[in-house]
Specification:
Blueprint: E1 3-12, E2 22-30, E3 36-44, E4 50-56, E5 63-69, E6 78-81, E7 86-89, E8 94-96, E9 105-108, H1 109-120, H2 127-133, E10 139-145, E11 151-153, E12 157-159
Antiparallel strand pairs: 1-2, 2-3, 3-4, 5-10, 5-12, 6-9, 6-11, 7-8, 7-10
Helix pairs in contact: 1-2
Length: 160
């Protein structure tokens, strides 16, 4: 289990309701795997406004992770995608870029596909993603992390 250290806590004015009920906290989290991260959280007890972010305190070398998905068992590969990492699936022509304040996520290959289907279903055909999720087609997930924080746990993975 990683170590969590509170480094800042203050109650400030909320940018939404303008009451002084916005609790702002910053922690340093050392997971032992990804290195130290700054975890920031703000939450207003009056209006419910919430925002959270993560940023690396320590920067590693860029990491590229290639996961070959050959069958349904590979969909269970555990993945930590940092908030700075891009995901590409070349066989499906997909690229998923991190947003401005993307949180990191711990998920599986199946979870990544489910999120992509949910996000893209209103914009076009997701049948190839659905086939991939059933294990009907082979594909490669490439995670490109400029800070080297992402990782995957399973056989058949190349991390450079």
């Amino acid at each position: 289990m990683g170590k969590l250290e509170l480094i800042y806590e203050e109650t400030l004015e909320c940018p939404i309701c303008h009451n002084k009920t916005l609790l702002v906290t910053d922690y340093i989290y050392d997971s032992g795997i990804t290195g130290k991260l700054l975890l920031s959280s703000s939450s207003c007890s009056t209006c419910g406004y919430k925002v959270a972010s993560e940023s690396p305190v320590e920067v590693n070398e860029e990491k590229i992770i290639e996961i070959k998905v050959n069958n349904e068992d590979d969909l269970g590969t555990l993945v930590y995608r940092s908030g700075f990492a891009m995901i590409r699936i070349p066989e499906l022509g997909l690229e998923d870029f991190p947003g401005g304040s993307s949180p990191g996520e711990i998920t599986t290959i199946e979870g990544i596909l489910e999120r992509l289907i949910e996000n893209l279903k209103d914009f076009g055909d997701v049948s190839k993603l659905e086939q991939a999720m059933r294990g009907d087609i082979k594909f490669t997930i490439i995670i490109e992390d400029p800070y080297g924080l992402s990782f995957a746990i399973k056989k058949n993975i190349t991390q450079s």
